[in-house]
Amino acid sequence: MGRAPCCDKANVKRGPWSPEEDAKLKAYIQQHGTGGNWISLPQKIGLKRCGKSCRLRWLNYLRPNIKHGGFSAEEDEIICSLYVSIGSRWSVIAAQLPGRTDNDIKNYWNTRLKKKLLGNKLQSPTVNNFFNQNPYSPEIPMDALNSHCSNLDGANMQHILEGQSSFSLQNQEIGYGNPKRLDGMEFLHGDDIVNGTSSDLVCPPFASEYGGILQHYAPDQDHISML
DNA sequence: AACCCTTTCAACCGCAAGTAA
DNA sequence: GTTACTTGCGGTTGAAAGGGT
Q1: Domain Myb-like: where (predicted)?
Q2: Which nucleotide is nearest, taking the CA of residue A35 and each C1'?
């Protein structure tokens, strides 16, 4: 048996929200809250929308203190740092940027920041230094890694290498299933690195730039501890 | 002015996790 | 423990806007 649809797709409106719909949703939630049930909310307020759509509209656009566009250089660097460290965990990244939504950050990264970073144009000495020393080259000097990372996880490495299927450290080829000691603390396997599945995440390369905003990320706890 | 291509971003989709019965 | 349902998330889509020719 397949999953029941969350709403009757034939009888819900889709596409852009009208100002009237926005006003109805906003007024109701500000007065009553969501009632703990998004699915039943649209019926309560007479909106022909899916509950998921209402939730998304509220979270990404209508709720108070939302900021749109105009990302600061500081926000750019926080996003880059976290992305390099933990990958596309947009909700975790958004939690570090008050007023920003995961959707906004995801869009911003996909459309602008990625190009900016990969184009090596970010005005951060540390980021520039790091990528200058590790410019998607098949060879990454161990010293350069150690100077920026306490250790290095698979996603991290994968982003730095931008899709290369294998690479070498100090001329040592890392292949699938071939464990290498990266930092004196742990071993990573080549396939873990390439697939981004290593469980031990790391002190991000650029964290020191941000006053230690991110020192350790615990993948099983879904939070970032500040040290 | 008209067309085409690229970029942006709001919204949708499907899946996994969480939770109540 | 199982099932049904809701919530939250990341990936993807597509319409609109912008820019170039």
Answers
A1: 9-62, 63-113
A2: C6
Q: How far is the CA of A37 from the C1' of B9 (A)?
A: 27
pLDDT in tens, A21-64: 999 999 999 998 887 889 999 989 999 999 999 999 999 999 98
| Cβ-based contacts with strand C at under 7 Å | A 1, 3-4, 6, 34, 36-40, 51-52, 55-56, 88-92, 102-103, 106-107, 110
In the DSSP assignment, the letter for residue A8 is -
Of all nucleotides in the shown strands, which has a C1' nearest the CA of A39? Answer: C6
Q: Which regions in chain A score pLDDT beneath 70? A: 1-6, 9, 118-227
Q: Which nucleotide is nearest to A54 (CA to C1')?
A: B11
Angle in degrees, CA A201, A86, A136, rounded to 5: 95
Whole-number Å distance between alpha carbons of A97 and A47: 31
